[in-house]
Structures are given as structure tokens and as C-alpha cells.
Amino acid sequence: MTIQDAGAARPAGRPRSEKAEKAILEATLDLIGEGMGISELSIEAIAARAGVGKTTIYRRWSNKEDLVVDALATLKAPVPPLAGESVRDDLVTLLDQMRDESGHVRTKCVMNIALSESDRYPHLFEKFRKIAIEPRRAAMRQVLERGMASGELRSTLEIELAMAILTGTMVWFTKWGDTSDRGPELAEGIVDQVLAGIAP
Amino acid sequence: MTIQDAGAARPAGRPRSEKAEKAILEATLDLIGEGMGISELSIEAIAARAGVGKTTIYRRWSNKEDLVVDALATLKAPVPPLAGESVRDDLVTLLDQMRDESGHVRTKCVMNIALSESDRYPHLFEKFRKIAIEPRRAAMRQVLERGMASGELRSTLEIELAMAILTGTMVWFTKWGDTSDRGPELAEGIVDQVLAGIAP
Fold first, then answer.
1. B184 is in which domain, residue-wise?
2. Which of A33, A66, B47, B109 has the most crowded Cβ, counting Cβ within 10 A?
3. Does any domain span residue B82?
């Protein structure tokens, strides 16, 4: 049972239950945020941190993976609004949100899980991809298609490759570069360099 | 004590000891290759897998992190030889090695650790960076500098940004794209697109 199902099935106005749910999700994020991997995470530890019994958790989630997906999904901000005037500016907006989010400790842990545990928990990662990653990829794909139609981008562009270049570069910076004292100029620098190319 | 120190301190020709060392490094890689995170990895488990006593391990490595660094370092192939004729071709060679290595299960696990556990084990990651990552970065930096000097690349290029674009894109593909049935044409596609830019 996922949290959405639970919400749909439950009669309106049971604040104690909602409070418990929130505490469980928060406890899960706390533990992940402290660096705990999914395999180390236990329903026992989550229950203890949330101050609820294990049965309270099992009433809502049939397994740990579903709980982790729901907890991770609460962290992802919606796709940012795009001005839709310049392809360059919209790409900067999309990339700058990635940089901005990477500054939060919890988002860092989500990234770590997405990066490292996807082989080990393919089911979990698949759900997370659908809920949290695909909407952003769809937004970027749309911007690139618009640019190809408008002439702002090469009409022969390989969209998947362009998306990998833009996203991969920002992921690289958020993981191994120092983004702590960098503002939106990082996203601008990446987009402009990728637009212009490194050849003369 | 690292394995290098041990090697230097030990009189020549103690095959039993060398065999034990190799078994310990292999056992460490086996366990990591099976998806075990560094925090889950224990000297006990490594000793059991290697068929040696814990003291045999502690005689060579004073702690788990040093042992893991030495084990990971054995996996990294040396920087590939570069023809030095065309900047484009040398960049393809460097990126294609990344793709090629990513196909090995053990290297995947190393990547996962480098990606996810660097916040948790900064000391380990720092050593690994020095031994295994920096030599490759230095090679790529040299190729880019050569290109700026020869006119194959823009003379105003921001080298760190160009390196992040090239490396980040290939890392993205090895993690989230499907590289299993792709050959060197992936590296070629990335390099050509980054050289030319996505604008018309």
C-alpha cells in the first residue's frame, strides 16, 4: 500500500493518522540524510525515530522500498516555471534548479541513493524515476524540441545526447565540483558552452 | 600501513605472504562487487572470504579504509596511450576507456562508491582521487591545453568547465544510459557534439 492509496482509502479528518504518516516519512528522510544506505535502513529504526510502532508503518506500507520511494518523492520540487521565450534561458532555469537543490543535505542523500543504489534496488529506482525524474526530463526535452523548431538549436540535434550533456555536466559539478559558493552563473556557463561548442 | 609500505618493508621472496595479500584484496573487491557498502564491510567478513585470520589483515593494514583504497586502486587501468595527433581523437580515446571500464561489474561498484560514499568517507575518497582519478584528469587537461595552443580548440576555453562537460556526460551515460551495446561511437558522438556545440 502506498501513501497515496492510504490517503484515498482513509476517511477525511483523522489527524492523528496523518501526523503519524508525516513523522514516518520525516524519520525515513532523517536516517537517509544521516547517510544511511537503504540496506541498513530498517523498519525498526524508522519506527523508533518516528515514535510509532512498527505495525503503524506496516498498515501504510507493505515494504521498506515503497516507504523509501514515497519519502524521497516528497523532496523533489516541481518542475520550475519556464518563461518560454528563450531556449537558452529555459535551459539555464532547469539546470539552475539542479544546482540549487544539490545544496540541501537531504537532496544530496537522494542523489547518492539514485546514483549508487539503482543497481541494487531497481524496483525502487524505477518508481522514483517515474515520480521524480521523468517530469523534469520531459520538460527539458520539450525545450530542446522547441529550440530545434525555432532555429535556436541545430535542427539535426540528437536530443538524448544533448540532454545527457546538459544534465551530466551539472550532476558532475554537484557531486565533485564545488557548487557551494556558485550561483546561477554556473548554469549559464554550462549552457553557453554547450550551445557554442569548445571548437573555435 | 599500506600495501606499498608492506611490500617495501618485507624481505624479498615470501610467497605465502604475497598470496595472502592478494587474497585479501580480492576478497575485499568481491564483497564490494556484490554490492556491499563500505560501512557494511567488516574486517571479519573480508578475513572469512579470504580464508585468512584477522591478524593477517591487521599486520598489513591498520584500518578498513586503507585496505579499501588499495583494493580499489588495483582496479583502475593506467591512462590509455594517446596518439597525440588529433585532440578530437585523444579525447575520444579517454572517454571510450571510461565507457569500456564501466561494463565491468567491479568497476561499476567502484564508481558507486566514488559517487555515493565520498561524503561519508572523505579521507578514503581523497586517497582514491589521488591514486586513480587525478592521473586521468591530468591527461585530459594536457590534451585540452594542447588543443588551445594548436587552434583545435577555442583559445579562451575554460578548461575545468570543458572537462566537466566531457567527463560528466560519459558518467551520465554509464550510470543511467544504456552503454551495454554501444561501442566507441558513443565517445565519438559526445566529443563531436561537445566540439561543435548544439546551437546552429
1. 87-196
2. B109
3. no
